[in-house]
Amino acid sequence: SRRQRQMCIRDSGNLIRIRHTEELLIYSDMSVEEIFAAVGMSSANYYTRLFKKVNGMSPTKYRSVYGKRQY
Question: Per the confidence metrics, is the pTM higher than 0.90?
Answer without folding.
Answer: no
